Amino acid sequence: MKKLFTLSLAILAFQFVQAQDSENKPKTPIGGRPNIPSDLNFEFGFNQLTNRPADLGIDFFGSRTFNVSYQFPINLFGKGSGFTLNPGIGVGSDKLEFNDNENLFINTSLGANSSKLVDVTDVYGENIIVKTNNFAANYFEVPIEIRYHLNKNNYSKSFRVSIGGKVGYLYEAHTKVKYESAAFDKRKIKDSQNYGLEKVRYAVSVKAGSPGFYVWGNFFLNDVWQAGRGPYATQASQVNFGLAVTVF
Predict the structure, then answer these.
(1) For 242, left (φ over 0), alpha (ψ -120 to 50), or beta?
(2) What is the dihedral of CA 207, 210, 215, 220, to 10 degrees?
(3) What CA–CA distance (Å, rounded) separates 26 from 17?
(4) Nearest Cα to Cα of residue 162 among 12, 41, 9, 33
(5) How many CA within 13 A on the CB side of residue 86?
(6) pLDDT string in tens for the chain (248-residue length)
(7) What does R_g of the chain's alpha carbons equal in angstroms?
(8) Within a 10 A sphere around the Cβ of 145, how many other Cβ atoms?
(9) 187-191 contacts: CB < 8 A, separation 24 or more?
């Protein structure tokens, strides 16, 4: 998450310099938002698993997603057609919070690059008070979409809808457990490894909204874990969705 935040600040600083160097730019209805022909998107939402076994329970509100992407428009079918192609780059961070104090640990019968669900009290002791217990996976992403603007004369003030997709590459995954106990006081344990996750993921994406705000959804087409390497040999895939703010 720290890497994601740092990258977001870097992109934001670059766009701020661009805005300062551009004079007499018209503003969109969001006050002070420069009309630069590109989008810096911050997406906030929830991360869920589909096609999962009943034993793989997750907490809805604890399973969240945060994505940052930078996209730029390319006119399709000529200027004023209403259509643009919007490629870009980005990073995504997905969290899963499992039920019953469970989290991912190496499946010793499968060895490295695998995982199973275990109650953290079975690992760190029964007499502990669990404060934080979640799993996070972080990806470099390449989104691309076809966007249709209802206002063909001024895309920067138009409601728009889009459909597209994105490809992500896993660069880091970890579990994080914070707990308190009489024996050890406060402990925080962060364990980074692959956990049997697929390195590459791909999704169909949909969006709808204004230049400043939109709703979004990602429907991933491949499994989260490699075949037979995840908890309960699950073939679960991901769906995430939420709200977004576009800075530029």
Answers:
(1) left
(2) 20
(3) 17
(4) 41
(5) 30
(6) 544 544 444 444 444 444 444 444 444 444 444 555 678 999 999 999 999 999 999 999 999 999 999 999 999 998 889 999 999 999 999 999 999 999 999 999 999 999 999 999 999 998 899 999 999 999 999 999 999 999 998 888 889 999 999 999 999 999 999 999 887 789 999 999 999 999 999 999 999 999 899 999 999 999 999 999 999 999 999 999 999 999 87
(7) 21
(8) 19
(9) 187/124, 188/132, 189/124
| Distance separating alpha carbons of residues 164 and 210, to the nearest angstrom | 17
Burial of 239 (0-12, 13-18, 19+ CB in 10 A): middle
**CB pairs under 8 A, 24+ apart, for 184-191?**
187/124, 188/132, 189/124
In terms of DSSP H, where are the helices of 103-142?
Answer: 120-124
